Amino acid sequence: MPIRRYLGDNVNLNGLHMIRDGNQYNPTVPIPFAQLVEVESDVEADNKKLPGLEPTKPNEKPRVVVLGSGWAGCRFLKGLDTKIYDVIHCKTVAGDGMPSEPYCFKVPYDKLVIASGAEPLTFNINGVEEHAVFLRDVSHAQEIRKKLLLNLMLSESPGISEEEKQRLLHCVVIGGGPTGVEFSGELSDFIMKMSMNGLRQYATNHLTKVLQALEVVVDLSGVRLVRGVVKEVLPKTILLSDGTNVPYGLLVWSTGVGPSRFVKTLGLPKAPGGRIGIDEWLRVPSVEDVFALGDCADREAVLPALAQVAEREGKYLAGLFNRIGKENGGKANSIGGISLGDPFVYQHLGSMASVGRYKALVDLRQSKDAKGLSHAGFVSWLIWRSAYLTRVLSWRNRFYVAVNWATTFVFGRDNSRIG
């Protein structure tokens, strides 16, 4: 009997939920996470009256379903040959003026690519989810901007105490990695260049960085570095393990990422750290025609959760798909006997981080003992900006980003809008 595969129970497809309640699908049950990737027969599938796509026919292009739209998923789709494969575009229907319940449907696939990313690590510290802002999505950046500008306005309100003013202008960044360092540098620039003179000294004096790790590697102008371990996050203060209370007006959490709740619920083998286990060709060994890449997947040799890793994996997998597709391996259960070619090998291209005031750190060595470029200063900042532009996917967006940088350099940031 022919086999039809589909995305299993409770799949969240970039906000689209497919939910099954018993033997019947019920779109009103708000179960948010995926559980399984199932296999069922044509007869069983036809008995379920859920609208959606039908399995691909012999004369149709094989269908690729991608879960996720981050660095890995986008780079994979950019390189995928759409003359060979049919990609499904899905997005949520919930939002302003749209139905609150998601539209549920089935999506049969020939090849499934899981690139759903990861979630910030909170180390199960009380109060982090409720009071901190993360640095993962565009919505997080918008929330940080809104909170910062509101705090600046509130600090100038009549009758506000000196203690409350200092708290509102006290920004804390948890985490000492590249993301935390870059944000601290940009925030310092914002305070030094955009704040009113009466507020500048307060903000500069009380812009603080509390490190979750115990190593400090960068000393930023306008940023005070404090070593410590967070014990609990309260609505207005952070409690450290040594009993110190650190007041804050804005708390940004940047301590790395771990497996998401979505990945944890998948009935798939896990790699060290809880991510989806994959082989050298980015395949999930226990399921046919299922691949995983980016922050949601890993091998025995743990790779860092970096954009360059996800992008390189996406580029590699697109090339693999294009190659097997030309050999008629794109359909379900058709890879057997086709050579997959060389396995994926990651080579570190280096690290870059902006530290504010048109300065950056650039280290293009593959290891600390290897030879290569290692530099800091204005030239490094130009290299960092140039490298960033090359990672933008389209020429249209590259032009937009470059123009935005130029106007900001000449006229400064627009801080007149809060929303």
UniProtKB/TrEMBL annotation:
<keyword id="KW-0274">FAD</keyword>
<dbReference type="GO" id="GO:0050136">
    <property type="term" value="F:NADH dehydrogenase (quinone) (non-electrogenic) activity"/>
</dbReference>
<comment type="similarity">
    <text>Belongs to the NADH dehydrogenase family.</text>
</comment>
<keyword id="KW-0520">NAD</keyword>
<dbReference type="InterPro" id="IPR045024">
    <property type="entry name" value="NDH-2"/>
</dbReference>
<keyword id="KW-0560">Oxidoreductase</keyword>
<protein>
    <recommendedName>
        <fullName>NADH:ubiquinone reductase (non-electrogenic)</fullName>
        <ecNumber>1.6.5.9</ecNumber>
    </recommendedName>
</protein>
<dbReference type="Pfam" id="PF07992">
    <property type="entry name" value="Pyr_redox_2"/>
</dbReference>
<dbReference type="Pfam" id="PF22366">
    <property type="entry name" value="NDH2_C"/>
</dbReference>
<keyword id="KW-0472">Membrane</keyword>
<dbReference type="InterPro" id="IPR036188">
    <property type="entry name" value="FAD/NAD-bd_sf"/>
</dbReference>
<dbReference type="InterPro" id="IPR023753">
    <property type="entry name" value="FAD/NAD-binding_dom"/>
</dbReference>
<dbReference type="InterPro" id="IPR054585">
    <property type="entry name" value="NDH2-like_C"/>
</dbReference>
<feature type="domain" description="FAD/NAD(P)-binding">
    <location>
        <begin position="106"/>
        <end position="314"/>
    </location>
</feature>
<keyword id="KW-0999">Mitochondrion inner membrane</keyword>
<keyword id="KW-0496">Mitochondrion</keyword>
<keyword id="KW-0285">Flavoprotein</keyword>
<dbReference type="GO" id="GO:0005743">
    <property type="term" value="C:mitochondrial inner membrane"/>
</dbReference>
<feature type="domain" description="External alternative NADH-ubiquinone oxidoreductase-like C-terminal">
    <location>
        <begin position="348"/>
        <end position="414"/>
    </location>
</feature>
